């Protein structure tokens, strides 16, 4: 079984909710595995956004928008201290 980057499902979910959550978690884990095959693991901030999607708090579209905004704020010219930190994967 593949390692999961996400917290376990909370108790009390209906079978339908659990199935939907497992599907989101599977997709998110597969995405991380693909990213890590070519680079570093996602940042803790990106994983927190993905956790919100896995938990069903936000849609995948919202997760993408939040991740894009986070990366723009971090890496746009003139942002922060001008660090040359490597670009972390989503």
TrEMBL record:
Residues 1-25 are annotated as: Disordered. InterPro entries: VbhA-like (IPR033788), VbhA_sf (IPR043038). This is Antitoxin VbhA family protein. It comes from Hymenobacter properus.
């Amino acid at each position: 079984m593949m390692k999961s980057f996400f917290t376990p499902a909370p108790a009390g979910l209906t079978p339908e909710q659990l199935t939907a959550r497992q599907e989101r978690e599977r997709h998110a884990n597969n995405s991380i595995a693909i990213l890590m095959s070519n680079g570093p693991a996602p940042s803790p901030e990106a994983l927190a956004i993905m956790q919100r999607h896995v938990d069903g708090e936000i849609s995948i579209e919202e997760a993408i928008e939040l991740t894009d905004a986070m990366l723009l704020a971090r890496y746009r010219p003139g942002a922060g201290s001008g660090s040359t930190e490597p670009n972390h994967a989503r």
